[in-house]
Amino acid sequence: MKNVNGKKLLYIIGFLFFFYLFIFSISVIKYSFTEIGSSILKITHNDISEFNAFGLGWLLAIIMQSSGAATSALISLGYAGVIGPVVLIFMVFGTRIGTTITSLFFSLLVSAKRRDFRHGFEIGLANLVYAFPIAVFMFIIEYFFSFFSTAGNQITSLGFSFNLGFIESITYPLIILINAVAPKYFLAFFGTIILILSLRTMPYFLLHLWGEGYFKRKINKYMEKKSRSFFIGFLIALVLTSTSITLTLLIPFVVSRMLNLKKIIPYIIGTNLGGVIDVIFGGLVVGQTSIPAVFAYVSFSVIGLFWLFNTDLMFKITKFISKRTFHISRTRAILLVLIFVLVAVGMSFV
C-alpha cells in the first residue's frame, strides 16, 4: 500500500512540475520574443495573406502535434508583436485542422489487420470531418466580416481582468537567470521545446495517477448513450488538457472491435470542447492581448456542437470517405497523411 501511495505521490509531483513548465514555457516565449521581436521579420496582415496564415497555423500544429501548444505559442508571439492580430486569428483556425494529424498518425502505428486498421484510422478521419467545415466557415466569416477579431476586441475593450498576476513572479526570476548566460534566441527555442514537452507529458502522469486501465474501463462503460459519450470525452479532455491524446486513447478499442465509430462521434465532439482548457490557461498567462485569439479558438469548439445534433451525418461522411472514396488501406492512409502535410506546406508558402 505504501508503495502504491508513493507512486501516486510521484505522479502528482510529476504533473505539478510539468504544469509549472507549461506556464514557464509561455512566459519564456512571451519574454524572449518581446525582446527580440523588433529585430526579426514581423508577420502582419500587410506582409502575409490570410490563406498563408491559415496554412502556417496548420503546419505549426502538425509540427507541435497539438493545436493547444501551437495556439499558446502563437498568442505569445502576438503579445510580442511578431504576429499581427488579424493574421493570428487565421493561424488559430489553421491549428485546429493541423492537430487532427495526431490521431491519423497514431492509427498507423497500431498493429491490426487491414479491416481493423481502417476502423482505427476512421477516428482521425472523423475528427478531420468534424474540423474542416468549421474551419472553412470561420475563415469565410472572418475574411468577409472580421467577426471573430472584432468580437474578441469588443470583449477586450470591456476591460475585465484576463490575467494571472502572480505568474511573472514565479517565472521571471528563473528566466532572467537563464538569460544571463544564454542569448534571447536560445530562450525562444528553449521555451518552444518546453511548451511541447509539457503538454505532451502532463497527460502521462494523470493517466498513471488514476490508471490507464481505469480510464479505458470508464470510457467503455459510458459510451452507449450519445450524451454520456459526449460528456466522457469532454471531461477526459478537460482533465488531460489534450484533445489528441484523449482521442488516441480510443483507437485500440476500435481496432479490437470493442467500440464502433458511431458511439465515438459524440465523444470526439466533447473532446474538442474540453480540449480548449490549455489555450484558455495559456491566454491567462499571456494576458488581455490574447483574448481575440482565445475567443476564436473556443468559438471553434462551440460551433462544433452543431455536429452533436448531426452525428449520423458526420458518421456517414466519414464512412463515405473511408470506404467509397479512398478505400482506406495502410498504404493509402500513409499517402493521405503525406498529402495532409504537403497541403499545409503549400498553403503556407505558395
Question: What this model shows, in words?
Answer:
This protein is mostly helical and 350 residues long. The chain has one domain (20-349). Helix 1 (2-36) runs antiparallel to helix 9 and helix 5 (101-109) packs antiparallel against helix 18. It is globular. It has helices at residues 2-36, 50-64, 67-79, 85-98, 101-109, 114-145, 147-157, 167-179, 184-210, 212-221, 226-240, 243-248, 251-255, 261-274, 277-286, 291-303, 311-325, 330-349.
For the record, the count of structural domains works out to: 1
Count the helices. How many?
A: 18
Radius of gyration: 20 Å
Distance between the termini: 60 Å
Largest sheet: none
Task: Characterize the overall form.
Answer: globular
What is the helical fraction, as a range of percent?
over 70%
Derived structural class: mainly alpha
Question: What's the count of strands?
Answer: 0
Low-confidence stretches: 37-41
**Share of residues in strands:** under 5%
Order of helices and strands: HHHHHHHHHHHHHHHHHH
Mean pLDDT reading = 83
How are the SSEs placed, and which strands pair?
Layout: H1 2-36, H2 50-64, H3 67-79, H4 85-98, H5 101-109, H6 114-145, H7 147-157, H8 167-179, H9 184-210, H10 212-221, H11 226-240, H12 243-248, H13 251-255, H14 261-274, H15 277-286, H16 291-303, H17 311-325, H18 330-349
Helix pairs in contact: 1-3, 1-8, 1-9, 2-3, 2-4, 2-18, 3-4, 3-15, 4-6, 4-16, 5-6, 5-18, 6-14, 6-17, 7-16, 9-10, 11-14, 14-17
